[in-house]
Write a structure and sequence with these properties.
Its EC number is 4.2.1.1. Helices cover about 40% and strands about 20% of the residues. The chain is α/β, with parallel strands linked by helices. The radius of gyration is 18 Å and the shape is globular.
Length: about 230
């Protein structure tokens, strides 16, 4: 077994010692407070970004591009891993977590602007890019003039989060009383504040920062967008 695997097991032993007494109330079932849909980028420590160390609190999903969409025989649908806690565990909060410098959005942007050829990628990666591209192509057309690639990508990160929020809100499979929140995790000093902060950009489809601050005063200082469209 290689050193990486050995180190992972050693770290798990420490985790087990620290968490041994924290599973008593959730050993036989779960009722998570929220489902989070994060990008699987290694720089996004999915539970840790919320300071979560409570088993059973968050139902955490991860994939490249923080997608809520999957393709089925009946067409596009909310991904089953996202939908499960909403449909079966009483969860009524869904949080879509994008992040600055997202590689999936960068690849999609490159594919749409001709700088990246998804056909050269393995089938699984092509599938992921193909799931994002149709939803984000209109965002490329709306980008302001004069942006460099990094600035364009970070605005499309927001656009992607918005589209995933819209898909959840528009699905008959998602309970109507579900609160759907879109956020961006910033580790690149793009939004200001501390690196590692999460910024709210969308609440139940509302994207205007001033409206959001007026409606959600308790978190007004965490509401920020790079662009509106």
């Amino acid at each position: 077994m290689n050193r990486t695997a050995v180190d992972l097991l050693a770290d798990n032993a420490g985790h087990a010692r620290a968490f041994a007494g924290r599973f008593d109330e959730v050993q036989d079932g779960q009722q998570p407070e929220a489902v989070t849909v994060c990008c699987s980028d290694s720089r996004v420590l999915q539970d840790h970004v919320f300071g979560n160390d409570t088993p059973g609190r968050l139902f955490t999903c991860g994939n490249i591009g923080n997608r809520v969409v999957q393709r089925t025989d009946a067409g596009e649908a909310v991904s089953g891993d996202v939908l499960y806690p909403l449909a079966h565990a009483g969860t009524r909060t869904a949080v879509v977590v994008g992040h600055t410098g997202c590689g999936a959005v960068t690849a999609m942007y490159g594919a749409l602007t001709g700088d990246f050829d998804a056909d050269d990628e393995p089938a699984g990666i092509r599938h992921c890019v193909d799931l994002l591209a149709p939803h984000l192509e209109p965002g490329v057309d709306r980008l302001p003039d004069g942006l460099d690639d990094a600035e364009a990508v970070n605005r499309l990160v927001e656009y992607n989060v918005d589209r995933q929020v819209d898909h959840l809100l528009g699905s008959d499979d998602v309970p109507e009383e579900t609160d759907v929140i879109g956020v961006v995790y910033d580790f690149q000093d793009v939004y200001g504040g501390e690196r590692g902060e999460i910024h709210v950009i969308n609440v139940d489809g509302e994207r205007d920062p001033e409206t959001l601050r007026a409606e959600h005063g308790a978190v007004a200082d965490r509401i920020r967008r790079l662009w509106t469209y």
